[in-house]
């Protein structure tokens, strides 16, 4: 009985404090839970926005890769054409040099070609058109 009285006395005096602490703890926990839920909602919204941006970036990267491949193919084609043109030019220059060398050798023995012409003859030759209609 003595124990019961002590227990009743303690519960009677401590009960309001225990209830207050429990209510305070419950309200604090509910507030923390509410804040965590708000933060979770905010993070979910951010996640949605980031996923959408990620999709857009992925699409842009794919488009850029396609454009890059097209440009790379065009550059390879241009490089090939430039290489062909350069080879054709070098071949034409070789032929021109060979022709000039043959003409030089052929004209070395020609007395007329190695003699200086009068200025009047040179001027007359310069004024004449190369393809005259009299030859037709």
From TrEMBL:
The keyword ATP-binding does not apply. It comes from the Bacteria. It holds the Pfam family DUF2570. The chain crosses the membrane at residues 14-37. Keywords: Coiled coil, Membrane, Transmembrane, Transmembrane helix. Residues 40-109 form a coiled coil. Residues 114-136 are annotated as: Disordered. Residues 121-136 have a biased composition (Polar residues). This is DUF2570 family protein. It comes from Marinobacter aromaticivorans.
């Amino acid at each position: 009985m003595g124990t019961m009285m002590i227990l009743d006395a303690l519960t009677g005096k401590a009960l309001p404090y225990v209830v207050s602490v429990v209510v305070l703890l419950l309200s604090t926990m509910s507030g923390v839970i509410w804040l965590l839920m708000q933060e979770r909602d905010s993070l979910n919204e951010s996640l949605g926005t980031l996923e959408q941006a990620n999709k857009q970036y992925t699409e842009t990267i794919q488009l850029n890769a396609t454009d890059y491949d097209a440009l790379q193919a065009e550059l390879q084609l241009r490089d090939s054409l430039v290489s062909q043109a350069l080879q054709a030019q070098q071949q034409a220059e070789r032929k021109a040099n060979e022709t000039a060398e043959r003409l030089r050798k052929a004209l070395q023995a020609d007395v007329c070609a190695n003699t200086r012409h009068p200025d009047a003859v040179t001027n007359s030759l310069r004024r004449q058109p190369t393809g005259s209609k009299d030859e037709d």
